[in-house]
Amino acid sequence: MHALQPSSGPLPSQRTGAPAADARPGYAVVDVETTGLGRTDRVISAGVYRLDEAGEVVDHWYTLVNPLRDPGPVWIHGLTTAMLADAPTFPEIAGEFAERLRGRVMVAHNALFDWNMISREFSRAGLRAPVEQRLCTMVLSRDLGLPLPNGKLATLAQYFGVQQRHAHNALDDARVLAEAFRPSLQLALSGGVPLPLTTCVAVTDLGEDAAGAPAAPASGGSWGSSYRPARKRPACPYPNPGRWQQDGPLVQGMRVAITGDTATDRELLEDRAIAAGLHIASSVSRLTSLLVTNEPGSWSGKARKAREVGTPVIGEDAFLQLLSDVAPHPGG
User: Fold this and answer.
1) In whole angstroms, what is the distance from residue 217 CA to residue 223 CA?
2) Residue 150's pLDDT is what?
3) 102-123: per-residue pLDDT in tens?
4) Are 63 and 23 in contact (CB under 8 A)?
5) Which residues pair with 197 in a beta bridge?
């Protein structure tokens, strides 16, 4: 496997030439660094490796982005206010970013998160990200049955022997993912494993008003976390119909637990589930119908209990798709 070359440093913007028209659509392997994980957070750097249909590199591109606010967890991404001060804003790079994505399947690790962040930035600029489908390499790894202990990019990279040089640098993370995606793609094609393509729906819920978003803390605390007092929710009016069945619909009354980071604001995700007639469970037991997590191999209490009692587990992407068509409770 030939190595993809990383950037030589955090320049405000770098590219390997203007994106040329490509007869084959291929893939855009994307990574973004952000001020946090919530709906109001902003993109502060973006890296894109464009690949052809066989997974070979066409070109790569990287840019810093001035979020016009506190950069958030500097101790993670290393990008300070001073480093971002002279960087272009997102509307200023939106056109070139769009050309890197246009007509391609967007590939990312935990793709729902990257899509939501990118889509919101385009929405703030009065545009729509030109992506019709995305592919999550976490889901692809699961579908391929790769023996990974967790869903981290570093673990996937290690499995394929890819060297990670600068974690949480958008261009290097995109390079690492591109190198890991190529053999994953080849395994899927040779093994007849369908690619887990998901239709992209533009995100218009920006979670903020015209005055702008609140700034993230400059240090301390959890990246993008916001702790809210527990809300008292109305009791689910439907009895539990049992466990979710693979390839079947969600059914009103099912007990759903959620664990780990979610791209969708957790409170919003729970509200959508409750509005659909589901019960949000605070823990996992033999009565739990389904556990939603983007890291099924994690060692959270809920994930461990789900493995112990055999609770079905799906990712956030799949859960949101199922939420769009919840079956009525059989008892009426």
Assistant:
1) 9
2) 82
3) 999 999 998 888 998 999 999 9
4) no
5) 135
Considering only the C-alpha atoms of the chain, give the largest distance between any 2 of them, rounded to a whole number of Å.
62
* Enclosing H/E stretch for 199: strand 197-199
Q: Tell me the three state secondary structure of residue 61.
A: strand
Cβ density class 259-282: b for 16+ within 10 Å, e for less: bbbbbbbbeebbeebeebbbbebe
Please tell me the total number of residues recorded for the chain in this structure: 332
The one-letter amino acid code at 332 reads G
Q: Is the pLDDT of residue 230 over 70?
A: no
> Residue written as tokens 């489908």?
133
pTM, to two decimals:
0.64
Helix ranges restricted to H, 128-207? 137-144, 153-159, 170-191
pLDDT at 167: 86
Task: Determine whether 193 is exposed, middle or buried from the number of CB atoms within 10 Å of its CB (0-12, 13-18, 19+).
Answer: middle
In this prediction, residues 20-38 reach a mean pLDDT of 80
